[in-house]
Amino acid sequence: ISDWSSDVCSSDLFPSHDREATDIKYKKALEDANNILIDSVGGSSKTLLKKKQELEDLGYETAMIMTYVSPITSLERNMKRDRSLLPSIVIRSWRDVNKNIDTYKQAFGDNFTLVNLDPEGANKEFDEDYIYNTFIKPLGQVGKEKSPEEIAKSKAESEQIYSDIKQSLKSQPKFDTEEQAKSKITNFINK
After folding, report:
1. What is the pTM of this model?
2. Binning pLDDT at 50, 70 and 90, where does residue 14 land?
3. CA angle at residue 187 from 69 to 114, to 5 degrees?
């Protein structure tokens, strides 16, 4: 999808890392009735769908482009970032985002595009030992020492998250091909 022309991708991009600046730009774009592209992780369907409804109430047509990578690819890319997150945050975020795929498909209908951006040959397994030894153990102790109760709580949360992810990986969503995604987005923009 990297070869789309600028006229296909000619909306304002609002990075989600600077909330105050994003809100100001968003309000200004609404006042000026500009096209808007909102960059969002998508972990909170309630927040995203509220924004969708707000835009539709103002007369905008909405669409969603969702990108997918496996949990291991998420962790590998996170390690390469200048400002990486703790692996536990990446894993929790992956779970929260991906459990919303069906919700977003239903909400956006034909205006929903899901693209798989896993590289060729990506590790699509969810091996807890591999994750621990590759991404968590090398970090050593992070933060303050935990009490036995905190350790038990963290372990239970991790087990639930891992269970949720394994369940999610059992049934891969249906992805749009690059051509289907380009076609859907071009048709949406040219309405």
Report:
1. 0.76
2. very low
3. 15
